[in-house]
Design brief:
This protein is of the alpha/beta class. 38% of the residues lie in helices and 23% in strands. It has an eight-stranded mixed sheet, sandwiched between helices. Strand 3, helix 1 and strand 4 form a beta-alpha-beta unit. Helix 1 packs across helix 8, helix 2 packs across helix 3 and helix 4 packs across helix 6. It is globular. The chain starts with a strand and ends with a helix.
């Protein structure tokens, strides 16, 4: 797998497909403790191949096939990974497709590279999750351990426990986007499961409300959970991505 070397010597694993003339590039942005090998990312890649679109996906620092210690990752670092990847590995208009934390990364990336972004599809977007979701949901004992010891191992139904660090929580607060209007004017589609146990649908609704763009569609899937990776969910995602490509084309 190809890698992009960062200034500090760490490497980002990535996969890409060159776009055909005048086509946008679909950029997949994964969730927290996730990677570019998931079913939704693969489906987006296959769609790009079939439609003659560009495609770019990469693993953040400490994720998947990229180098680095996950426990040393922060929102600042992963944001810089996003900006470096699109600056060095893509050209032309981009459609950002972000899942969970990838939704936060999409918004931060779009704010920093407004001239490049043609539109976004956000799946269970979790901007500000470190302060507005995760911290409030942790038991008092976990919060105490994080602040006093610097780390707590969080159990997860998706695999092995993973570290939540004090640096992640403290750093994340400076990148909040929901406290003020999000000054973006591109079309955005939000896909959200109503029974999502990790990102409440009301949180995703706050994203819609914060976006300055008038062209924001909020699609609530009544029986959808957080991952939205069932066959019907992925089919819906593909439909919405294709619709957005036609809209911005």
């Amino acid at each position: 797998m190809p890698t992009l070397t960062r200034a500090d010597g760490e490497t980002l694993a990535y996969t890409k497909i060159e776009r055909s003339a005048n086509s946008p590039t679909l950029v997949w942005l994964s969730g927290f403790n996730s990677d570019m090998a998931g079913s939704k990312a693969i489906a987006v890649k296959e769609l790009a191949e079939a439609e003659g679109l560009g495609y770019l996906a990469f693993d953040y620092f400490g994720h998947g096939e990229s180098s680095g210690d996950f426990a040393k990752g922060t929102i600042s670092r992963w944001r810089e990974d996003c900006l470096t990847a699109i600056d060095e590995l893509s050209e032309g208009p981009l459609i950002l497709i972000g899942s969970s934390m990838g939704g936060w990364m999409s918004l931060l990336t779009a704010k920093a590279r407004k001239e490049r972004i043609a539109g976004m599809v956000l799946i269970a977007p979790a901007p500000d999750f470190t302060s507005k979701l995760m911290w409030h949901d942790l038991p008092e004992s976990a919060r105490k351990e994080i602040m006093e010891k610097g780390m707590w191992m969080r159990p997860t139904p998706y695999g092995e426990p993973y570290p939540i660090t004090r640096s992640l929580i403290v750093d994340g607060a400076q990148w909040s986007v929901l406290d003020d209007p999000i000054d973006l004017s591109v079309p955005v589609t939000i896909l959200q499961g109503k029974v999502d146990p990790d990102v409440p649908w009301t949180h995703a609704l706050k994203v819609q409300d914060a976006l300055a763009s008038a062209d924001v569609e909020f699609i609530l899937i009544k029986d959808g959970e957080h991952r939205l990776s069932r066959d019907q969910d992925i089919q819906r995602l593909m439909m919405e991505v294709k619709r957005l490509v036609r809209k911005v084309g």
